[in-house]
C-alpha cells in the first residue's frame, strides 16, 4: 500500500504528492524504513561512481537499466554491461562476472570491512578478494605481519 498524501495545489487541479515517512519515490512506491534517499542512491553506485553507470535509473535502491542505441538492454547490478561490450565465455555473456572465464564476481562484498572500507585501505579488491599491500594479510588486510599486537597493553 502506497502512503501518498494528495493535496490540490492550485486552480488547475495540479496534484501535490507527499509521501508518508518511510516512503519515497514519484508514487511513494519505495519503502525505505530507517534508510534515507541518499543511502538508497549510494547502493546504485559502483566504486562511488556514477549512479547506474549513467545507463539506468535508481529506483528504490536498485538500478533499472535503459536500452542501448542498438535496442539491446544494459545488464548488471549497476547497468555496467551490454550485449556488445561485456566479456563472454563459451559465447555467453558473463553478467555480473569478469575475467577470461567469468571466474570473478563483479563485487566488493568480499572485500568490505566492518568500517565499510575496502580492504581496510591496505589493499585492492580484485575478483571479490583483497590483494593486500606488503606486510598485511588476508582475508581483508586487517592483520599486519610483524607489527605489535594492538590488543595487548603493557602496564
UniProtKB/TrEMBL annotation:
It holds the Pfam family EGF_integrin. GO terms for biological process: cell adhesion mediated by integrin; cell-matrix adhesion; integrin-mediated signaling pathway; leukocyte cell-cell adhesion; neutrophil chemotaxis. Residues 40-80 form the Integrin beta epidermal growth factor-like domain. The keyword Ribonucleoprotein does not apply. It comes from the Eukaryota. Gene3D superfamilies: Laminin, Tie2 ligand-binding domain superfamily. One of its GO terms (molecular function) is amyloid-beta binding. This is Integrin beta epidermal growth factor-like domain-containing protein. Transmembrane segments: none annotated. One of its GO terms (cellular component) is focal adhesion. InterPro entries: EGF_integrin_2, Integrin_bsu, Integrin_I-EGF_CS.
Amino acid at each position: 500500500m502506497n502512503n501518498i498524501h494528495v493535496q490540490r495545489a492550485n486552480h488547475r487541479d495540479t496534484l501535490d504528492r507527499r509521501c508518508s515517512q518511510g516512503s519515497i519515490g514519484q508514487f511513494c512506491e519505495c519503502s525505505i524504513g530507517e534508510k534515507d534517499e541518499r543511502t538508497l542512491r549510494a547502493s546504485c553506485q559502483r566504486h562511488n561512481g556514477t549512479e547506474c553507470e549513467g545507463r539506468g535509473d535508481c529506483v528504490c535502491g536498485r538500478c533499472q537499466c535503459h536500452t542501448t542505441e542498438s535496442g539491446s538492454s544494459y545488464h548488471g547490478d549497476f547497468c555496467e554491461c551490454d550485449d556488445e561490450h561485456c566479456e563472454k565465455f563459451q559465447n555467453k555473456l558473463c553478467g555480473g562476472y569478469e575475467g577470461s572465464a567469468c571466474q570473478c564476481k563483479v563485487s566488493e562484498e568480499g572485500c568490505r570491512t566492518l568500517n565499510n572500507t575496502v580492504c581496510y585501505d591496505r589493499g585492492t579488491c580484485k575478483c571479490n578478494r583483497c590483494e593486500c599491500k606488503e606486510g598485511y594479510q588476508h582475508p581483508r588486510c586487517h592483520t599486519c605481519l610483524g607489527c605489535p599486537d594492538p590488543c595487548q597493553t603493557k602496564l
